[in-house]
TrEMBL record:
Residues 162-280 form the 3-hydroxyisobutyrate dehydrogenase-like NAD-binding domain. Residues 5-159 form the 6-phosphogluconate dehydrogenase NADP-binding domain. SUPFAM superfamilies: 6-phosphogluconate dehydrogenase C-terminal domain-like (SSF48179), NAD(P)-binding Rossmann-fold domains (SSF51735). The active site is at residue 168. This is 3-hydroxyisobutyrate dehydrogenase. One of its GO terms (molecular function) is NAD binding. It comes from Kushneria sinocarnis. InterPro entries: 6-PGluconate_DH-like_C_sf, 6PGD_dom2, 6PGDH_NADP-bd, HIBADH-like_NADP-bd, HIBADH-related, NAD(P)-bd_dom_sf. It holds the Pfam family NAD_binding_2. Keywords: NAD, Oxidoreductase.
Length: 293
């Protein structure tokens, strides 16, 4: 199954290398020469956008829906260049409304579509242990299952085109909320003299546990590593997309609006380029400073 990975950042680059290691014929494509060279130095065949080869699968790993739209629509985009019957997989975290519109164009051009937003970060991409939320036709998923299996440990088909992106935004909203809530809970315990690790052990034995308390805190926050590979800027972007989706659906204002506001104006000093776990780390750091003074 000949594949082209478009977007050779931490996620796309690692996915391309994982597919190559699994025996797929893979070409990596990126607008930046430095990104192409980095992957070429690791043995991957690369191509500039104007050299895009014909393939059975085009896997997109891009920052925003606008980038996805450009790759698909802007001449010479995939609508023109991709062979009939090939599959476009959008592994970005994209705007569901845009995804559904693009899916109609892709299918209308004689191609197939899947949205497949990811969890697991760069490490999961490098080890083939990603989680995938799949939106599209079951028959299309079956066609590309060998590629999906090479990249992921878990795949969940959640509905038609755009559904994967809807569920991904819902997931990231919950993760963003849990980082604040768990950060405040651990900070409260620290101010009361309870060690953060002990507090987390208690939380993880009860109903308050989450992936944030079980994974993020020990892996990136208590360790002060803050190198998950997912930035604060990307989480802010995803939260804005979730807010916009909720507004388009006519949902009444709720906790989501407060979480979006907190991540944008309540997280002063945390730059977009910093690790997204910093928001909880800052809460804990403030509690430690308070108890030390």
């Amino acid at each position: 199954m000949k594949s082209v990975v478009i977007g050779l950042g931490q996620m796309g680059g690692n996915m391309a290398l994982t597919l190559k290691q699994a025996g797929f014929e893979v070409t990596g494509c990126d607008v930046f020469e430095a990104a192409r060279q980095r992957l070429a130095d690791q043995g991957l065949e690369v191509a500039a956008p104007d050299e895009l080869p014909a393939a059975e699968v085009y896997l997109l790993s891009l920052p925003t829906s606008d980038h996805v739209r450009e790759v698909i629509e802007t001449a010479p985009g995939l609508l023109i260049r991709a062979p009939k019957g090939s599959v476009v997989i959008d592994a970005s975290t994209s705007d569901p409304t845009v995804s559904r519109a693009l899916a109609q164009q892709v299918i209308g051009a004689g191609l197939a579509w899947l949205d497949a937003p990811l969890s697991g970060g760069p490490k999961g991409a490098a080890t083939g242990k990603l989680g995938m939320l799949l939106g599209g036709e079951a028959a299309t998923i079956e066609r590309v299952m060998p590629l999906l299996e090479a990249l992921s440990a878990k795949r969940t088909h959640v509905g038609g085109a755009g559904s994967g992106h809807v569920v991904k935004l819902a997931n990231n909203y919950l993760c963003a909320t849990n980082l604040i809530a768990t950060g405040e809970a651990v900070a409260m315990a620290a101010r009361a003299g309870v060690e953060p690790a002990a507090c987390l052990a208690g939380l993880n034995s009860g109903s308050g546990r989450s992936a944030v308390s079980e994974v993020n805190f020990p892996e990136w926050i208590l360790s002060d590593r803050f190198d998950s590979g997912f930035t604060t800027g990307l989480m802010r972007k995803d939260l804005r997309l979730a807010r916009d989706a909720a507004e388009q659906l006519g949902m009444p204002p709720g906790l989501l609006a407060a979480v979006v506001e907190r991540w944008h104006s309540g997280a002063e000093g945390i730059a977009d380029g910093e690790d997204f776990n910093r928001i909880a780390g800052e809460l804990l750091a403030a509690a430690r400073e308070e108890t030390a003074s």
